[in-house]
Amino acid sequence: MKDKKENSFQIIKRLIKFSAPYKGLFVMSLVFAIINVCLTLYAPIIVGKGIDLIVERGKVDFEGLKPIITNFVIVVAITALSQWLMTLCTNKITYLTVRDVRKKAFDKLGNAKISFVDSHSHGDIISRIVTDTETIADGLLMGFNQLFTGVLTILVTLFFMARINLKITLIVVLLTPVSLFVARFIAKNTFDMFSLQSRTRGEMTSLIEEMINAQKVVKAFGYEKRAEERFDEINGRLEKCGVRALFFSALTNPCTRFVNNLVYAGVGVFGAVIAVGASITVGDLTCFLTYANQYTKPFNEISGVVTELQNAFVCAKRVFEIIDDTPTEQDTENAYALTDINGDVDIDNVYFSYTENQKLIENLNLHVKSGEKVAIVGPTGCGKTT
């Protein structure tokens, strides 16, 4: 578990490094998020004041309600505008960052070591650059839009609630660790499952890419049945690990909603008792119930974001493996240049492997005359490219 945390932390640092050129957009997004959260939480105060002006039938202060309604409309309009501008900024940050990650990975493929290309199927490499980068974008988008605003909402809501009634606020805070426990449990059980799902998806992409490119060979050698069996086997594994990952991620919503209802019920009961004693007004209680709902909602969203981020971190790790691959060594200045080439190939007693503990080629002897064609077949990673 410690290694996972360290890996996730390192991945976050690297993603932040890729998004550093767009810090201006990040600052703008932060400003709009603060405006959005503060005004969203200020609206219930306006509503509470309006409710206090409606005492009972026939005793409504319509003159006092007019400025309150005007203020409410203005607050809602500015809130909607700030929400749109914040989303616009976070979208640009996300897709510009992922564009740079994808470009970096693609550029690295041009100088990738043969050992990397030969030990990974082409379909898996394609899956990393295309599918995995899209998953990173989805995770970052949820992280910017929901995780960031969710944390802000929690902090500002606590401030507003404490100003109304400190005792009820303490009840809300005491029930908060339950949501944190739920989020931790889900995050702990989803990382490995999303990792397995991502690897299996790469296997499937590899098989499909191989079968499409070699369709004529598949037909010529009657390989259709075995290809279907291989696909069904990989598809079955993908279905199993996908269902398990989806099961734990799907626990987020019902579990956190249950906690939310506990908080809401506790605030309602305790607040009603205090309201009977005239410690707070009905308008303040209505405002507080709205805040209780606003406070617990981000925990639901953050739990979902944590699950999505686990998937994004797994995919980012796969993409960074391409970026981190040591480039092919260039020829030295005194390298021997071939001159009199007649087209014959002679290989005598050749041994080769990428790692010491995994043998690939042993005692290979090959003699090919000019004009002859020799086919080399074998599974991925057996040394065909070499």
Describe it.
The chain is mainly α and 386 residues long. Helix content is 76%, strand content 5%. It contains 10 helices and 4 strands. The strands form 2 sheets. The protein has a two-stranded antiparallel ribbon. Strand 1 (54-56) and strand 2 form a beta hairpin. Helix 3 (62-109) packs antiparallel against helix 5 and helix 6 (166-213) runs antiparallel to helix 9. It is elongated. The model has no long low-confidence stretch (mean pLDDT 78).
Q: How would you describe the shape?
A: elongated
Into which percentage range does the β-strand content fall?
Answer: 5-15%
What Rg, in angstroms, do the CA atoms define?
30 Å
Task: Give me the count of strands.
Answer: 4
Instruction: Supply the number of helical segments.
Output: 10
Q: How would you state the average pLDDT, rounded?
A: 78
* Helix fraction by DSSP (H/I, runs of at least 4): over 70%
**Strand line-up across the major sheet:** 1-2
Distance between the termini: 38 Å
